[in-house]
Amino acid sequence: MKQLKCPECGAVFQVDDADYAAILSQVKNTEFDAEVDRRINELHERQKAEQELATAKAQQNFQTQLSDKEKALSAKDAEIERLKNQLQGAETQKKSELAVALAAKDQEIARLNSTISQSESNLKIAVLEEKQKAQQAMQQKDAEIIQLKADVELEKKEAQNHEAVLIKQHAEAIQAKQAEVDYYKDLKTKLSTKLVGETLEQHCYIEYEQYIRPYLPNAYFEKDNEAIDGTKGDFIFRDTEDGVEYLSIMFEMKNESDTTSTKHKNDDFLKKLDDDRRKKNCEFAVLVSLLEPDNDLYNNGIVNKSHLYPKMYVIRPQFFVSFINLMVQSSKKSVEYMKQLVQAQQKEIDITNFEDKIEKFKSSFLNHYRLANDRYTDAIADIDNTIKKLQDVKESLRLWDNYLRLAQKDTDDLTIRKLTYNNPTMKAKFKEAGDAADKESTE
Q: Alpha carbon of 149 to those of 44, 144, 341, 426, 443: distances in Å?
């Protein structure tokens, strides 16, 4: 028998083993089922919590990765923008370096020519001074003339040696530039694309301010705002040296977009441009044109229209800076000749043919320089057309050097004997000096 105590009332009662076992089994099953249900619920709650935690961690990881991706994309965009700016800066720098190198070479050639001209001018002055002192010290004058001639020859040799060095350096530069052909092709393509969205006048004005203004800060280059008889040009360029105006150019810009459905030709605008040049007292007239884009005559360099109108030229926009550089370097030589002309007039020397010979020399030098520029622009055009024509480009560049040597030869050929040829006053002076010398030697 088993005794059981009621938990409610505290009464004790006895049960047999069978009833006790039944009650015990009932209690165990009930507790077991409750414990199982409780454990299952706990497992469900724990699984649900773990699943929610895993979901939250996955979302957090996804947000973190998404943020990292956005930061990486932002960094890539910034890097691309920086590389674009760096590429544009490099292109601008290369273009500037090319223009500065060409201008420096032109200035160096001009300096050499000026040195030779100055030496010959000194020789002429020395001859005139010795002629006045011929009766007092003829032997001394002859010795000084010989010394001066020797100095001139020495300076010429030094100039020739320096020119040879420059030619060698230029040849080396050509070989170096050959490796950058692809780069300059791409650069020129971008320059052409740059004109899209801009007017031709704006393009030329920007080119002038970037590449001409730095080394000609006092030159005048502004819009022509004064209409005479109802017409005016686009731009006027003027420059002076020591108060003497040595160069003036009237510019007219014509773009294809300015025309109507009827396509105009460049020759249609030359008469008006010549009239504007005369009204504004300009020496040269230049039409900067994008008309007739398929005409190779205008695509290969500077076109001389002086057979139609005096000192008239037609160029493409890419030759705008080169043309001004060419005209400045060639025209600056006339300043020294003008000063010499004034000195000669003060000494009452007959210089009837002196100015014509100077003009002939200037024309010859400008022609040779123009030919050299034509060859150079032909070379650039050949590079743009095809890489297979590089050998022809090299030959054109060699011809350019040859024309520069011809220009130097023209300078060397400009002597006192040629300047005084057919000049009766100078001949009389030299004859008088010679007769005096002969008379003194006879005595």
A: 117, 9, 22, 19, 29
Q: Which amino acid is at 334?
A: S
CA-nearest of 55, 37, 36, 59 to 47 is 55
**Token output for 196:** 């899209």
Quote the CA–CA distance of 372 and 391 in Å, as a whole number. 17
pTM for this one?
Answer: 0.36
Q: How many CB atoms lie under 10 A from the CB of residue 165?
A: 10
* Backbone CA torsion sign across 370, 119, 357, 284: positive
d(CA 302, CA 249): 15
**Residue 118 half-sphere exposure toward CB, CA atoms < 13 A:** 9
Strand arrangement, sheet containing 284-289? 220-223, 235-241, 244-254, 284-289, 312-315, 303-304
How many C-alpha atoms does 205 have within 13 Å on its Cβ side?
A: 12
Q: For 420-429, write each residue's pLDDT tens digit.
A: 667 777 767 7
Does residue 252 contact residue 287 with C-beta atoms inside 8 Å? yes
Q: Which of 171, 203, 182 is CA-nearest to residue 105?
A: 171
